[in-house]
Amino acid sequence: MSGTYLGEKSVDAARATAPGIPDGAETLFIGGQWVAPQAGKTNAVHCPADGSFVGLVAEAGEVDTIAAIQAAKAAHDAGLWSSVPEPERGDLLLAVARRVRERKNEFARAESLDTGKRLVESEIDMDDVAACFTYFGKLAGQQAGRVVDAGRPDVVSRIVHEPIGVCGLITPWNYPLLQSAWKVAPALAAGNTIILKPAELTPHTAILLMQVLDEVGLPPGVANLVLGKGSVVGAPLASHPDVDMISFTGGLTTGKTIAVQAADTVKKVALELGGKNPNVIFADADFDAAVDNALNAAFVHSGQVCSAGARLIVEESIAQPFVNELVRRAQNIRLGGPFDASVDAGPLISADHRDKVTAYVEAGLAEGARLRCGGRWGTGELADGYYYLPTVLDNVHSGMSVLTEEAFGPVVTVETFTTEDEAITLANDTIYGLAGAVWSQDAGRSQRVAARLRHGTIWINDFHPYLPQAEWGGMKQSGTGRELGPTGMAEYQEIKHVYQNLRPAVTGWFPR
Ligand code: NAD
Question: Does the annotation mark 483 as catalytic?
């Protein structure tokens, strides 16, 4: 396979327009140096839109991760970054935001080449990356500790925030640079040293980010990059005693493995895992807006979004026209490669992932779900990429695997309800708790339902927006901890109580 589908808009041609994308084994960034893995291995990255070759990157081994951990520990122990005043750390992050904006086109192209995501979506992601660095750059220095009233004039008691130390940051392939930014920006703002481990399928924008961190003057060893398989280069980050915190975004099974690996050293663990997110539509909702957003909820980035609205829960009285319209519009979604401005959505990330989505839909159909549209691979000119048609399944009921497991593809199931209580019960009937939406023009009902949903983000009459200044994260098995917002920075800080006795004296507690 090589660029056959996209013709003159081919990935090969686009690759030539992104000359800044690095190529080769020297793509690990350890201790301020670009180095090759000690075993000299490389990994070839291909674009899922048509299989075109994108670039060669390092394929690190455990020994390289250990070298990165040592570099991060040495930088932390030397205070290279933690001793920099917080506002100066913030300035550096603001400079990163500026560079990302300046190089937005190149960064977005690299992201689209790796993920197959539409260029316009990658451009939005790069804006969001810059906004994240801007937010945490401005937040640095604003979270002063506090003086505690000890109730005694001869005691000074202070709460101070300190960096945690060495942070291992492991990120997924769906929003590669954005998910990395959500971790890198607050971790650096808080004064930590980091080792970033992006997903092996989508490494290029992480390399570009390291270039920028180096250019803007981050001291050597403060930010390190390892590339390679999770089980090989990610696992040591979770288990190594010199890593003080592991922050992971990815699948539930991997998250559980990481939590177990981290337990032995009792390091801090932050997990942003999957979701099985309900989109609840009441009959009084704005019909057109709700249908339109239900499409966005389920099919943006071909459903490869942790907060995808994969469970449509619609009031019985409008279910038939609502689903008919959803199906009609889902069938109009044009699939294609990232550099074709006429398409609406791109491919799945890999052949393996498409097989997983396929098996998930087939299991649903075997359990009695009804296929309303989609349910098959892209054919014809789409055959070179990993395309899966937008899929709507109805006739589903509690207990079916299509309702319980995350497909992470363009698949939405339809359930119906007749009462508010029933809607809430259905929406909470999942082990996950990442995000969900309520559609109604009754403000009281929207708020009532929002209050009872056990999900970390609730949208009312909207789907998917997030704000860098608002916390993001999951309840139940969607994870622990929060990213973004002030809490997203606090996650990367230790809190220390300093108690000073200004008049030391003998206690008399024990006999002399
Ligand atoms: P994944 O769990 O397969 O991989 C994520 C990262 O973990 C990759 O970098 C991978 O190399 C690494 N990894 C794999 N095994 C490891 C191990 N044993 N030790 C250490 N690291 C390991 O997930 P994915 O397929 O890349 O991403 C999709 C998942 O991410 C979905 O479940 C999605 O819901 C979730 N996600 C969640 C959020 C959120 O904010 N909650 C955001 C984006 C994606």
Answer: no
Residue 217, sorted as left (phi over 0), alpha (psi -120 to 50) or beta, turns out to be: left
75 by Cβ neighbours in 10 Å (0-12 / 13-18 / 19+) ranks as buried
Residue 252 to residue 234: CA distance in whole angstroms: 15
Could you give the count of Cα atoms lying within 13 Å of 35 in the half-sphere of its Cβ? 20
Instruction: Please tell me if the CB atom of residue 402 comes closer than 6 angstroms to any atom of ligand 1.
Output: no
Count CB neighbours of 442 within 10 A. 14
Query: What three-state secondary structure class fits 66?
Result: helix
Asked if the model's pLDDT at residue 19 lies above 60, the reply is: no
Catalytic member of 111, 272, 315, 406: 272
| Catalytic choice (47, 59, 306, 483) | 306
DSSP-assigned states of every residue in 84-128: S-HHHHHHHHHHHHHHHHHTHHHHHHHHHHHH---HHHHHHHHHH
Judge whether 219 and 75 are in contact, CB under 8 Å: yes
User: What is the Cα–Cα distance from 81 to 319, expressed in whole angstroms?
Assistant: 56
Continuous H helices in 240-286: 252-263
pLDDT in tens, 73-128: 999 999 999 999 999 999 999 999 999 999 999 999 999 999 999 999 999 999 99
From the number of C-beta atoms within 10 Å of its C-beta (0-12, 13-18, 19+), residue 284 rates as middle
Ligand 1 centroid from CA 65, angstroms: 18
